[in-house]
Amino acid sequence: MFSSPRTLPLERLQVTDGLLLTAARWRAAHEYHRQRQNVHYQSLHQPGIVCGLKVGMVAAPEEFAAQYRDRRWLQVQPGVAIDTLGNPIIVPEAIAYRLASEPPRSGTAVIYLVLSYVDPDRLQRSVEPELVQETFRIDEKTTPPDALEVELCRVVIQAGVVCLEETADVFSPGINHVDLRYRQQVQARPLGRVSVAQVNGAESSPERWSELVRSLPALYPGLGAVVETLSGNSTADLLTLDSDQLTFDDVALENLKQHLALGGTILIHALGDARFFKLALIRQELQQALAKIRRDVSLGAEQQEVEAELAEVETSLKELLGAIAQPVKTLAAQIGFAVGDGSEQDLGHDSADGLGDDLGQLNRDHPLRSQPFLFAQFPVIHEMPIEILAWGGIVLVVGDLSQAWAVTDGLMLPRETIRAAQELGINLLHFAWKRKQLISV
């Protein structure tokens, strides 16, 4: 995720009659406008390539010594990019570049070719010209681009002689192929950003969350997300856990307590059992049947029978959900978060975002049901209806929702199920972002 503008006031030159115009004051006046431009760009846009800057293999230039005339040469075509500060990077003509990185002794290594802005004021010159040209740098590195660099391409090399080759499939490049898949184009900045971290090897692995994050630009570009590695000083907005791994020491419990107090969300996964999912399916079928019966006034008796049967199923489901949620309630009590008594006290915060009953069931206005995607019923994945309970910042997902966030070998899910699961996952991300935003205000 890219940085936000610095929260430092801008200073501009106060011009009055008789003011002596010096070089320093002239620079200060122009620097003010540059800073305003950069703040504007950072606030509304993300860095990336505007146009051109295509990269491809090229023959070694003849003017170089024979030892450098090998198959390591690339050519960067003219084009324009903008970095994260809003600085324009203009490459006016094609440039040949030789990859100089040494191959690894074993395995593979990734070489990144990056472009960055160079401020002419920071260049040393023997003569100061009247006009200076803003310029750029092209570098290769073995670590991903930083915030001020724009990726042009990457190349995976292996032990032995590095010899670049044309790829037969640009969507699946291999060793020594130019990989252009990760070039970022300039685009609007998401309105919100949320970070996810996994605790204790949660069922929904980082790879599954990464697949969900990949769907955001197409399904909900207003939200950006990143999957982090949990560390001692993690500031992730959404922590994911498994219901069978809710035993923590005092330090970890205090960290979870502070996480909730600062507006974070704890997402707990429970797989449920066959009886629960069977009853959940029956409930959905009865609800659908009841909706049809209510449209026919002549079926009053049948309506009463279905309503009675549905009430029995709801009672049984509540008992099962209560048992599934018990470890979550125990954890909540350990961190000072009261649930199940009607109070829903969220560590001193008003639980207006809770909107659930004592069991944690969501009403139709709960943001997990309605923001940004509306759900009357949650998706059914392999005859297992997903259920979500919530108590303030603690959310329990019953069922393996994350398995449907991407195409998986051996798991033949219809497109509608995958899309519904992705949209529900985005609701989870949106809930975590919005809760953090509201409590942090």
Short overview:
The protein has helices spanning 23-44, 206-219, 250-261, 274-293, 300-334, 367-370, 415-440, and strands spanning 45-46, 48-52, 55-57, 73-76, 79-82, 88-91, 95-98, 108-118, 135-141, 149-158, 178-179, 187-188, 192-198, 223-228, 238-242, 265-270, 380-381, 384-385, 387-391, 394-398. The chain is α+β, with helices and mostly antiparallel strands.
3D architecture notes:
The chain has helices at residues 23-44, 206-219, 250-261, 274-293, 300-334, 367-370, 415-440; strands spanning 45-46, 48-52, 55-57, 73-76, 79-82, 88-91, 95-98, 108-118, 135-141, 149-158, 178-179, 187-188, 192-198, 223-228, 238-242, 265-270, 380-381, 384-385, 387-391, 394-398. It is of the alpha+beta class and 441 residues long. The strands form 6 sheets. It has a 6-stranded mixed β-sheet, with helices on both faces. Helix 3 (250-261) links the parallel strand 15 (238-242) and strand 16 (265-270). Helix 2 (206-219) packs across helix 7 and helix 4 runs antiparallel to helix 5. The longest helix has 35 residues, at 300-334. The two termini are 21 Å apart. Mean pLDDT is 85; it is low at 341-357.
Q: Based on CA inertia axes, which overall geometry fits?
A: elongated
Instruction: Classify the helix fraction into a percent range.
Output: 25-40%
Strands in their spatial order, largest beta sheet: 14-13-15-16-20-19
* N to C succession of SSEs: HEEEEEEEEEEEEEHEEHEHHHEEEEH
